[in-house]
Amino acid sequence: MQKVISSAVIKRLPRYYRYLDELRKKDVVRISSKELSEKMNVTASQIRQDLNNFGGFGQQGYGYNVEYLYNEIGKILGIDLPHTVIIIGAGNIGRAIANYDDFLRRGFQITAIFDVNPELIGSEVNGIRIQSMEHLREYIEETKPDIAALTVPKEQAPSVAADVTAWGIHAIWNFAPTELFLSGDVVIENVHLTESLMRLSYKIRAQKQKQDEE
Amino acid sequence: MQKVISSAVIKRLPRYYRYLDELRKKDVVRISSKELSEKMNVTASQIRQDLNNFGGFGQQGYGYNVEYLYNEIGKILGIDLPHTVIIIGAGNIGRAIANYDDFLRRGFQITAIFDVNPELIGSEVNGIRIQSMEHLREYIEETKPDIAALTVPKEQAPSVAADVTAWGIHAIWNFAPTELFLSGDVVIENVHLTESLMRLSYKIRAQKQKQDEE
DNA sequence: TAGATTGTTAATCGATTAACAATC
DNA sequence: TAGATTGTTAATCGATTAACAATC
């Protein structure tokens, strides 16, 4: 029985991974939790606690081997293995994702794009042909993609999500500004841009009030 | 001296706002913390605690007036007043944001787009002309936009961020997969899509392991 | 007035930080 | 061996939940 890791820890892992990636690119061989904590503006204690949820990756008196730790976090994040991604909805965000080659570098390969709009069907985005939504079921059942990026309008999102999960999708990257209620074995990661912008707006106001008090 | 609100609370506010928006569209007049908690899958206690950070918006024996609470949360989030947004970097994500009309509905108006690429300069995105980065300083100093959306490659992000804040920008919506270290009066909200995708990858692996154990 | 539900205090739970023995 | 730094336990801090008096 494996331990459930708190989401606070999981949220931090990609950031560790990014810093370690930069260190290894600079040919840094070893790093202590103290050095890393200063770079990242967190406590050394937190780094050690976080990592020890998954195992002892360091060595007393030495610290952590950068390359090794980088690879181990990659394994924890599951990006040691490649993922196939389909994009559902060839609107602005869907096309932006399809064009964003950074994902491929991390092993996420966009394999297909779907849309309902006949004017878009047949055209290409980043070398990938946009297909009709009518082919979606067949495509999922035959190729079993790992992830569906949902970039359809929010009205369609819940029903499309229900469909694709019924057809075999187990992971949804949801860009629609709405909640998806799906069966327990489907994992969801939300990207709610409007909420992000609202939080920025909150910070702007809070900052202004702080300055007015001074 | 106003109380500092924890970021956990602030993260939840836009979600309350979204649910209240849906309720008012359905002409629901009042709601209790208990009802809302059931819809949102949180505790009623948390809703009441969160709201009471900002004031008593409810009434004993009655609950909360939907329209009133919606507007009050809007004020807390600072979206009762409009914001002007400039986009720096007319790549895929920059153009996707420029095209995303949902922001306008919340009072965020895209007023300009900038890029270094001569092939893009002069063309239009959603009716907004892409301008040369050479005009960026002048534009900021003259029109004082509220927010700069940073959608340039990660190598350029830190220096562009330093420039625009020196010229008068106080809020950055950062899409570059890198950290921005700026002076304390600049507020930053990060959207790190690759990190989001990595968290989804983690969840996929964790879910698989869970199923293998059963 | 009785019932409902808030606002708020107190209790619990979980996450972060500090401390230090283990060990390279 | 001495010094450094981890892994891990214990202490602290903060966030969430429960409880209930206040009040509409």
Biggest contact: A-B, 58 and 58 residues
Helix content of chain A: 40-55%
Overall pLDDT score of chain A:
96
Number of strands of chain A: 10
What's the main sheet of chain A like? Answer: 7 strands, mixed
Regarding CATH, which class of the largest domain in chain A?
Answer: Alpha Beta
Give the end-to-end Cα distance of chain A, rounded to a whole number of Å: 54 Å
The CATH architecture classification of the largest domain in chain A is: 3-Layer(aba) Sandwich
Q: What's the tally of helices of chain A?
A: 9
**Quick one: CATH superfamily of the largest domain in chain A?**
NAD(P)-binding Rossmann-like Domain
Helix/strand order of chain A: HEHHEEHEHHEEEHEHEEH
| Oligomer kind | homodimer
Which stretches of chain A are poorly predicted, pLDDT < 50 over at least 5 residues? none
Shape of chain A: globular
Provide the β-strand percentage band of chain A.
Answer: 15-25%
Labels describing this entry:
DNA-binding, 10 strands, 214 residues, three-stranded antiparallel beta sheet, 9 helices, Arc Repressor Mutant, subunit A, homodimer, 2 domains, 46% helix, alpha/beta, Rossmann fold
Quick take:
The first copy, chain A, is α/β, with parallel strands linked by helices and 214 residues long.
